[in-house]
Amino acid sequence: MQPLSNIERARSALEEGRRIPSGALSSLVASSWERCRDLGLDPGIEPRDVVVPFPLVQRLREEHSGLRRLALAEMQLLHAQIAGSNFLIAFADPDGVVLDTISDQHFADSRSGRSIIPGSAWGEAERGTNALGLAVRQREPVAIYGREHYFRSHGHLSCMAAPILDAGGQLVGLLDASCSHEARQQHTHALVRMAAAQIENGLIYQERSNLFIFAFHPRAEYLDTLSAGLIAVSRDGAVSSLNRPGQAMLAGLPAAAGCHFEDLFEGRFGAAMDGLLDGGVVRIRDRAGSAVFMVCRQIGARAPAADLPGRGRLPPGPAPAAAPPAAPGFVCLDPALRRTMEGLADATRMRMPVHICGETGTGKELMARHVHAVSGRRGEFVALNCGALPETLFVSEIFGHERGAFTNARQDGAPGLARLADGGTLFLDEVADIPAPAQTVLLRFLDSMEIRAVGGQKTRKVDVQIVSATNADLAALVRERRFRADLLFRLNAFTLALPPLRERQDFAAVVRHLMQAIAPEAAITDAAIERLRRGPWPGNIRELQATLQRAYLRGRMTFVDEDALDPGDAEDQEACDACAGHPLNRIRCREIRAAYTTAGSNIAVTARTLGLSRTTVYKHVR
Ligand SMILES: Nc1ncnc2c1ncn2[C@@H]1O[C@H](COP(=O)(O)OP(=O)(O)OP(=O)(O)O)[C@@H](O)[C@H]1O
């Protein structure tokens, strides 16, 4: 008979309620088992899935939004590095509650994959010994393989977690990679630790964007690596943060926030700054006598004139950043709107999928174009209206098809929108309407960024910024199981919530902008704007646009005042038969019919004023 392995001896002791034989397990795992046993957890049963409600997940995501942005970008990279090896990558809050996951489809569909979902809590008390729970407790990287998990039912799972600490040493989140085989995954564990370290450095750049950041290491060739120290200092040398490698290199010195650069390094801070800001690598000794190489990684913001040191040794700070490009005709002075857009440029730089939600007519498509402009991507902006596309058509629209791939396929095939958007942006409008099988296909595409044309053999990678939009409540659709939760979590990595027009504080600016586009020569009175402001605007900016167009048509003069306005007139109209049953189409249809009446039943004038084709107008008024 084969002798029992250490883990088998330990497990039978655990499951038979005996003392765990010493040396059979690492002390970390053994003491975790003891704690779980003391909590009365039965290792033989299936643990209960503890999942916090979705609104709380949303709140936690908002609370950790800056960190989450960095984490999602790293998760994408990590996933690309280990894609295909059936892993799930999770980002969790400091209590071990999972906030986001990115996974290989096969694992996501497995029993284990379904238990690691946003909202699932992985503390030791809930799920027994597991990497996330232990890393929360230990505040250091932990890997738990197969039967080292406390619960027998987790015995096929391996997970590796790394804590993310802020510069003050506080645990702010965790990264985890899990897979469903027991083999040791040293390489993956190292990648998870590196991703966590990268996020920690990202936090320093994010939170200290107005300070000077210097990298240092005893070997110059390591200055660009994750083992380099990072130190953030103000213009006068006050240290604000140090990353973990930096703290380790300066161990023994008073290296804490609030100390001065000169407490840590020899020589005058000013002299060091001069060399560093010249862009060179400076050799400098720390106060313990060890030499390090140092280089400037970020130039701090220009100090107010009164704060500038008189010695004139510092070159002027960088010029203020130029305003980012915007989509043409995009008004956005509303503070709530501007808040939701904070971090958009970073999100697009990291290629995070952007999701735009808002009522009908709030400007989702225009915002999508703005996202494309902000991303600075040279490729095309390609839009797909996902509403009412059956699965097969959806797939061939996105991935293209080879010649004669299916009945009605184009003779010469089609490249597909994802390929057309390579290097640019793919805008998925009405994303809530994607049929269920196509949701799975889309999810796979978002994970791999690989496309294969229908009827084709070859796959190719594309580099696409994904933007999606809907006016539906996707969270509610997820609850009703009409939309995949994992797809929602992939799409809404960065969410832009557009306020309804009635809540916009830049209402007047929107009115003036629309009026300028309708009739550049016409003015609009303040009283007219005030009257408009009182409307409920269920159709939002589009409805306002139509009201102004009608007012202008009605007045046909050089200004629009209160008398020309009749916001209610569209409501008096009946929608056409085709639109009557569709609440969203109804609003638009009634506006077209009202404009048609105002234009003296002239299709050409109505079409020109509304910027529609004559056929469209005709369809609604015949
Ligand atoms: N911020 C803005 N500044 C100026 N014009 C805007 C703005 N937002 C929207 N508009 C205008 O309002 C109209 C409706 O915008 P858009 O089509 O982008 O809305 P939407 O939310 O995508 O509509 P739907 O829900 O029907 O798809 C467009 O003519 C657009 O140019």
UniProtKB/TrEMBL annotation:
Keywords: Activator, ATP-binding, DNA-binding, Nucleotide-binding, Transcription, Transcription regulation. CDD domains: AAA (cd00009). Residues 330-553 form the Sigma-54 factor interaction domain. It comes from the Bacteria. This is Transcriptional regulator of acetoin/glycerol metabolism.
